[in-house]
Write the structure tokens for this entry.
Amino acid sequence: MNRTTNIASPADNSAAVAAPAVQTPVEQENSRLLDLQKFVTLLRANLRLIVLISGGILALAVTITLLQTPRYTAETTIQINNQSAQVLGKDEDISQSEASSPLDTERFLQTQMDIVNSRALAERVVSRLHLLGNKSFYEGMAVAAPDASDTPAEVKEFTLTVLRKGQGSNLPRNSRLASISFTSTDPALSARVANAWASEVIQANLQRRYDSSSYARDFIAGQLDQAKAKLEKSELDLNSYARSAGLLRARDPSVNAANDPGAGGANAVTSASLLQLNTAANEAKTARIAAEQRYNLLKSNDLLSSPDVLANQAVTGLLSDRAKLEADLQRERAKHLDDYPTILQFKAQLAAINKQIDQVAQSIRNSVRQQYESAVQAEKSLDSQVKLLQGSSLAEQDRAVTYNLLARDSYTNRTLYEGLLQRYKELNAAAGISASNITIIDQADTPTKPSSPSLIRNVAVAIFLAGLISGSVIFLREQFDDAIRVPEEVEGKLGLSLLGVIPKLELSNPIEELADPKSTLSEAYNSLSSALRYSTPNGLPRSLMITSSQPSEGKSTSSIAIAYIFARIGRKVVLVDMDLRRPTLHRYVGSNKLGVSSLLTSQNTLDEVLQPTELTNLSAITSGPIPPNPTELLNSPGLLAMLEELKGRFDLVILDSPPVLGLADAPIISALADGVLIVVQSERCRRRALRTSLQRLAAVRANILGATLTMFDVSKVSNQYSEYYGYNYYTYSSTTPD
């Protein structure tokens, strides 16, 4: 027996059917069109629901709009800068400094907007406009005034809540212009509050800066007092130590005390004295050396060769007189003898002059010696004084270590005190004159037109909500509705190949309708029969079982129609009614005295149960008498023998099977048939029931060829489906030329 039975699950049924693996461009375009058509179909199918929902929401929106109290919105525009105007040549507030990056700028602007919307600013507006207990304010906000029994805290909280509810702000991206708006039923109140809010933003900003400066001044004043006390204490400690140590503070003005706080300090007097004595000692030593050299020169050499003697005026005069006498003596000797009186006189005078010269030279030498001895004494005296002061200076230096530490502490305290004093003076000079980085660009004017309610906006919102709610309802309805309504759902929901679509027609007898080849029913089943020819790799199956998940879905009509179609084209067909519980075939072909049950029980032969029909190539076998246990009868070996004998005599054996659900008959028959066709009734058959049926058939490895959708009401769904599937073409009359 040549048939395919490799089916594992309903999801694999589509793979068993010969279908193109890749869609052609035309098929893809048709698929997109069908998706759009399905969407339009859903809209048309739920048009009444959509109209009801949309109409109700629109009516509600119009009613709410008419009942709402008109409200007026006033808006003030302010500019927020990162940096304010300079004060005293510098920015006093760290928040005024330029942002280092766009992210810092964005954070700064967001911080400013948070301040604008803060509760503290709302409290300033309430205080400025005296809104606490103001009846006109509560009337403008369309709220009831607080009761007299409410506490002040409750009244304040209620007023702040109402005020902040009406306030709004907005800062567009990439802009420093922010808007502050206020909405109420009173136009003047809206403008007044919006302008007051913007003014309080600036005032609060300045107040924060002043408070920050005041805090800084108070803080520095406290630090200044502490620095002053430390400075006074350090000065007193320094003076007390200097007094107790016997140190004198004689600061040299030429010394830079900033670089060396201890310079010229406690040991300045001793150091100065030591310096002076050391200088004098050096000078005395120099004088002594010079005097010693002069004295040694006079002592060792001829006195007349000494510069000190030769430099003496008296010696110079005597030497001059002596030279003159010697000259006169030489002239007289040239004329006279040595005993000549004149010569003797000159000799006596010359001896007297030499004696005077010697006396003067001796006195000069004695004077130089005295000078030398005095220099030696002076040097010795100064050296002893220097050594004495050196010891005193070293002792004072030891005491000056502690002194210098105290002096440096005093200097540090003085420097800190002077710096704090200078900063305190600067803050006092800059207090109260800082500029704000927020300015008002446009003040709010009294609005002339209400900002709400807006009929256009409410209608637009209503339309949006209507579409959203309608779409949600339709979506949920489609999700929970598992009925098969359109042909696409056969493949989409069941995973079965769609072999044909049978339109819904009012028929009294399908055989009479099938007798007309051009009838709608004939054309629909002709299309189904054509699909069955290529439903397996070997073409049309020799035995075809036609079943459904539930009764009355059109499987018997489909069995008769398919049998008529193939018999009419020359195939030898036998139609077998396998429903041994509720048979229907005998109503169309004849008696039900003999049939399948009598054949399976071997009461009659195949020739005896075969019944001819009006078509030459079509024979029928009815169910026969209803047996007491149909399932046991179908499980007998006679069913397989009957099918084999029928396939040997006929080209096509069509088995009109009972429904799958609730019975074991259909799975038994499907296991022996070469192919199974599932009949699905439109708008009745449930996906879950069909899946259960497919699972039962898959359990016996039935070869499911596909499904056909019956009783499909195209006009009820959409005219586009009838155009796509060609049902408008099916409805032509016999008198219309082709």
